[in-house]
Design goal:
three-stranded mixed beta sheet; about 15% strand; elongated; alpha+beta
Length: about 325
């Protein structure tokens, strides 16, 4: 394990310098690269007095498997994650939520992704997050599990609040407890799931899985009806389609809007990061596509762009609307 400890120590020192965690002394942090973790990627703990040698006051432990796939970003992010924990322990103490607002602020300063990344026995890059809206916990998930799809069925062990779920890059600003904010899931609350709009007898449109897993009826041409390609089936992950209530969805192509009164079937406008971090298609203008200069990419911070779906410019200048 010794060959891995040297680069970890270098990353710890670089992280402390980058984040300006001047209160931390790299010499006060002991490093252990271990095979003992099954689910964890890393750990930071204060060293008790009985376990304390001459100078170290914290121990950062990193899972050895992180070094085996040749990707430096995995182990470096984990080291930064743990250095942020050391900073919070030093400045605030242990009486705060492990991944609460204090740690998230420190993680961002350290250059770490402020979301825990661990699921089962595998190392994963989380796509979704289940979190307490009060900051008690935050867990990353790679799949849209039952907890991600139905957060209202669970409660926080610390405060009893129903958790929320959301896409890893899109945490809601003022979340409502028990709400699913995952963009690709066609409901937010239990009421939405059980009765999304109106009864089948009076509905005019359908949002449905092309494989027949499930369907939701609507009276109005909502965003979901107009842009079904943004959503996927919670059961089989197929891209949804929308159509008139009397159509036979099994005969229709997925990812398209087949409603006769809507003048498009596929995205006509794209809102995107100029550096390729994300792109989202819409049938008509949204506030983001009208004024892309007002929005920034969550990942790289660049001002966003908007362009016609069938005519992407070769070079994208941040903050530019190529439609108008």
């Amino acid at each position: 394990m010794i060959k891995y400890e040297a680069p970890v120590c270098e990353e710890i020192e670089a992280t402390i310098d980058r984040a300006r965690f001047d209160i931390l002394d790299p010499a006060a942090i002991r490093v252990d690269v271990t095979d003992s973790f099954r689910r964890q990627l890393g750990e930071c703990r204060p060293i008790s007095r009985s376990d304390r040698d001459s100078t170290p006051k914290y121990e950062i432990r990193i899972a050895r498997r992180l070094f085996e796939d040749g990707r430096d970003d995995r182990w470096r992010d984990t080291v930064r994650h743990e250095v942020a924990h050391a900073y919070v322990l030093k400045t605030v103490g242990s009486d705060v939520a492990p991944h609460g607002p204090e740690w998230k602020d420190a993680a961002r300063r350290a250059g770490a992704d402020p979301v825990a990344r661990c699921e089962g026995d595998d190392v994963v890059d989380a796509a979704y997050v289940l979190a307490c809206p009060n900051g008690c916990f935050e867990h990353g998930y790679v799949q849209r599990s039952k907890r991600i799809k139905n957060p209202w069925q669970y409660t926080c062990d610390e405060c009893g609040t129903h958790p929320i779920s959301y896409d890893v890059t899109d945490r809601p600003d003022d979340p409502e407890a028990g709400t699913c904010y995952v963009a690709s899931i066609p409901w937010q609350t239990q009421d939405d799931k059980d009765d999304p709009d109106d009864t089948r007898n009076t509905a005019r449109y359908l949002l449905t899985c092309p494989n027949g897993c499930t369907a939701w009826s609507y009276q109005r041409r909502t965003k979901r009806i107009k842009n079904p390609w943004l959503y996927s089936c919670p059961e089989c992950d197929a891209t949804l389609l929308s159509c008139d209530i009397d159509d036979r969805p099994i005969n229709l192509e997925s990812g398209r809007c087949h409603v006769a009164s809507i003048p498009w079937q596929e995205p006509r406008i794209v809102h995107a990061c100029p550096n390729g971090c994300f792109n989202v298609g819409f049938g008509q203008h949204t506030k983001e596509s009208r004024q892309p200069d007002r929005y920034r990419c969550e990942e790289c911070g660049a001002r966003t762009v908007a362009y016609p779906a069938d005519d992407q410019p070769e070079t994208l200048t941040p903050g530019t609307n190529y439609i108008e």
